[in-house]
Amino acid sequence: MTLLSSRMSPRSRRVLRRCGWVLLVLFLLWASTPLWPLTGVLPGVVAPLLPAAQAMYFLGVLAAGCCAATLVWGGTRRRTRGRRVGIATVVLCTLLGLTAADMAVAVREQQRDTDPAGTVGTDTASLRIMSLNTYYSAADDEGIVEAVAELRPDVLVLSETSTEEVGMVEGATGLHAVSPVLRRTPGAGTAILVGDGQAREVSEDTGITRHQMPVAELDASTDPQATIVGVHTNTPVHRDLLGGWLQEMEDLRDWVDDTSTSQDHSVILAGDFNATMSHPEFRELVHGADLERCAASAMGPATWPAVVPVVRLDHILVAGASCGDSGTLRVEGSDHQAIWADVHL
C-alpha cells in the first residue's frame, strides 16, 4: 500500500485511508456479532444475515486485523505512524477482547459441572454416542457402516435420513431403529439406532422441531437410565425458516428443563442443531438448560462443510451426565462430518 500511495495524489491517499477506516469499522462490527442477541427483533429481510455473520465471525476478526495492520503501515509520513500504531493497538486489543469474551463463555460452559480428568471411576456407566447428518440420505452406505464399525457406538443418531438408509444400517451393523422414519419433508427424517434391548420407551416425534425429533429411554449396562433425543433444527440463514429456528431453540430449552425436572436420569441430545456457540440463542439453550457440550475444545472441532469444516453445527449435549472423549469423522457423501462422544452417566 505504501508503494501504491506514493504514486497517488494527496487527495486520493486521503480517500483511500478513509475507505480503509470505514472497512475497519465494518469488520469490527462483524467480529462483534456473537455479542448481539438481536436476530429476533431485526426486520425479516435483514434478520437471516446476522446468524450467518455470527457463524463466520472469525473471518471478521481476521479481516479487521489485516485492515488495521495495513492502515498502520500504509502511510509514508513518519509523524503520523506513531498515532496510527496507537489506534491500531487499541483496535486489535478490542478484537482480542471480543474474541476472548466469546471463547470464555464457551470455556466456562465446557468446564461447568464436569468431572476432572481421571475422576470417572471404572464402575461408572457410559454410552458412546455417534451422530451424522446423511445429507438427504446421500452419505455413502459403506462409509456409514465403516464409521460404525470403527467407533462402535451404543447409540447412533442419523438426520436427513430415510427408511431405506436406516434399513441398510440395521442390516449391516446390528443396531436397530427405535421408531419409524417420518419424512414430512425430504430432509425431515431422523432416526435413533441402538443395540437390542436398550430402548425402553419410545416417542416417534415430539413435534418440537420442524424435522422429526424422536426420543428413546435407554438403560445403560450398570442400570442408570438415559433419555436420548435425536435433534435436527431449522437453519437460521433462510428467511422462511429463521422464525422456526428461534422458536426451536426456546422450545428445546424448555423441553430439557421439564424432562430433567420430571425424570431423575440423564438427558442426551445429539444431532444437527444448525447453530454454533457464536449464536446467542444456542448459548442460551446450552446455559439456560444447564447442558454440557461434548467437544474436544472450547468451541469444538468444526463439522461443516465436510470437506473443509469451518463451523460446528453438530453437537452432543448432556444434562445430568459428563462428557469423556469425543471427536469427528469424515463420511463420504455427507456435507457434515460425523461426531461422537463418550457420555458418563
Description:
The protein is 41% helix and 20% strand. With 345 residues, it is an alpha+beta fold. It has 2 domains: 109 residues; 222 residues, Deoxyribonuclease I, Chain A. Strand 11 and strand 12 form a beta hairpin. Helix 4 packs antiparallel against helix 5 and helix 8 runs parallel beside helix 9. The relative contact order is 0.13.
Main traits of this protein?
single chain; 345 residues; alpha+beta; Deoxyribonuclease I, Chain A; 2 domains; six-stranded mixed beta sheet; 12 strands; elongated
> From the helix content, strand content and strand pairing, which structural class follows?
alpha+beta
Helix percent band: 40-55%
Portion of residues in beta strands equals 15-25%
CATH architecture descriptor text of the largest domain: 4-Layer Sandwich
Which CATH first-tier class of the largest domain would you pick? Alpha Beta
**CATH fold description of the largest domain:** Deoxyribonuclease I, Chain A
Instruction: Report, as a whole number of angstroms, the end-to-end distance.
Output: 58 Å
Shape annotation: elongated
CATH H-tier superfamily of the largest domain: Endonuclease/exonuclease/phosphatase
Mean pLDDT over the full residue set: 86
InterPro entries: Endo/exonu/phosph_ase_sf, Endo/exonuclease/phosphatase
GO molecular function: endonuclease activity
Domain Endonuclease/exonuclease/phosphatase: 130-336
Pfam family, one: Exo_endo_phos
